[in-house]
Write a structure and sequence with these properties.
2 copies of one chain form a homodimer. Chain A is mainly alpha-helical. Chain A has one domain: Multidrug-efflux Transporter Regulator, Chain: A, Domain 2, CATH 1.10.1660.10. In chain A, 61% of the residues lie in helices and 3% in strands. Chain A contains 5 helices and 2 strands; from the N terminus they run ααββααα. A two-stranded antiparallel ribbon of chain A has the order 1-2. In chain A, strand 1 and strand 2 form a beta hairpin. In chain A, helix 3 packs antiparallel against helix 4. At the A-B interface, helix 5 of A face helix 5 of B. The structure holds a DNA duplex (30 and 30 nucleotides).
Amino acid sequence: MRIGELAARAGTTTRTLRYYESRGLLPARRGGNGYRTYDEDDLKLLRQIRTLQDFGFDLEETRPFVECLRAGHPEGDSCPASLVVYRRKLAELDTLIEQLTSVRAQVAAQLTRAEAAVPGGPEPKCELGGHG
Amino acid sequence: MRIGELAARAGTTTRTLRYYESRGLLPARRGGNGYRTYDEDDLKLLRQIRTLQDFGFDLEETRPFVECLRAGHPEGDSCPASLVVYRRKLAELDTLIEQLTSVRAQVAAQLTRAEAAVPGGPEPKCELGGHG
DNA sequence: GTAAGCCTTGACGCGGACGTCAAGGCAAGA
DNA sequence: TCTTGCCTTGACGTCCGCGTCAAGGCTTAC
């Protein structure tokens, strides 16, 4: 299959596939006319990349998974190198979520504090004495 | 005070201050020699910007806070427009944290599944039959 | 033969918040 | 006077994953 079809079947664009090739992540064979040619295995590799990208993995981080599949393993994460990436990503996510949660709490505190001093801010929610 | 001193006192760089000025966020008066001149109020504005930046606010999102201070209010969040930004940011943070938590769970599940099939991966933690 | 629709490479654009370099002006100390 | 260290503007570089032309070639349908 050619680049347009592969892109369509993976729900991405030809530009993206050329970009992956430029990064050495998804090289393509060439037909006699210079057109890129792909097969079903390439589709599988591409889907692996896309899934990880959707999870927020950097492109480089998908490489072990791709190489794992290309080595003949049934899944991209059937290799130790892929598991290392998983674990690192989990740690990164934990750190990030922790930071964001901390920031959220601080912003919420600031908001609460500020609302108590701004006209039209507080808007008592369920106390007596108001119909509008 | 001049740009270098202000930058140092706020823990940032002169480049950053010039950038803020180029965005109209922190304009500076000029001395007879063309040098930028700042006062203590500018330091307060700058600290407000930096605090919000550290929270992950976009530069544009700090503008209401800066204008609030410049309007003479005691705090950058003493104005309704600032509270609107706070609330929007809280919503963004909630969405983001939720997404990241979801991704974390999915990655953790993949890791668990994959570990059960890779040599050297599982490493039973507390079951019988292993001292090394 | 020609228009449509695919493909090719090359190269610039984007967003955000600056970093970094270049070329030069101004002020103060030895 | 010369050096040092601050300051000025201008402009390109960074990171990342592409989007978006531009100019042209191949193939197929009519």
